[in-house]
Amino acid sequence: MQYSPERFPPFFYGPEGRLIQVEYAAEAVSRGSTTVGIRTDQFAFIASHVRPPRELVDPFDKIFEIDEHVGATGSGYISDMLRLVDELRVEAQQHRLTMGTPIDIYTLSKRIGQFIHEFTLYAVRLPASSLIIAGADQKGVHLYQIDPSGTFSRGSAFAVGKNAERAIDLIVKSYRKDLTLDDARKLAEQAIESAIGEKPLLQTGYIKLDEKVFVKEKY
User: Which residues neighbour 200 within 8 Å (Cβ) at sequence distance 6 or greater?
Assistant: First the structure.
């Protein structure tokens, strides 16, 4: 059968072979709250700019406890982010019930990446959210970022959301392996401030290697 654009519309790939729905979702993420993560061998720290959707409306939470040993944040549509957070929690609890142990951070990140990737196989709207996951397990402290295509990456620093490039550039220039938790907190605030051009109101969370308990801080 001969290909016809009218009969088979290009839901997936553009003329250059790009996944159109992934690019649209990534664009939505780039308009979201600036969010960063910083990791050393001793801890992982996450922070997100908190902003009310309009006057007299409480801002949404941006830091989430997934399980005792892992937390997450992100940027993009808040409803999509909450859906992905729920999926993370389900995966973590199912692993505990089945295996009797906390889920390792690589497996958790891989499963949520696969969950998101499934959306790219059909003509449906992708979750317009990018996640940053911070956790600790038997292999150490971890920081993962999952983008709207389902691709997941492990690293020492990530930034997503509005002007994320400015934020990550500042972090890369100032990052050291011997950063303290307070150093990371200050660096995250500076990075987000450079991205948004004003003093940010942040919600933060962290996990330490020696404690392996995720702590959601008040803002």
Answer: 34, 49, 50, 189, 192, 193
Write out the two tokens for 171: 């972090």
Q: What are the extents of the domains in the chain? A: 20-52+61-212
- Calculated CA dihedral for residues 34, 214, 66, 93, nearest 10 degrees: 160
| 173's tokens | 């220039």
Let me know if domain 20-52+61-212 sits in CATH 1.10.340.30. no
Q: What is the pLDDT along the chain (219 residues), one digit of tens a residue?
A: 344 444 444 456 777 777 888 999 999 999 999 999 999 999 999 999 998 888 889 889 999 999 999 999 999 999 999 999 999 999 999 999 999 999 999 999 999 999 999 998 887 889 999 999 999 999 999 999 999 999 999 999 999 999 999 999 999 999 999 999 999 999 999 999 999 999 999 999 999 999 999 999 977
Q: Cα dist. 60→24, 45, 74, 147 in Å? A: 23, 19, 12, 21
Q: Is the pTM here over 0.90, yes or no?
A: yes
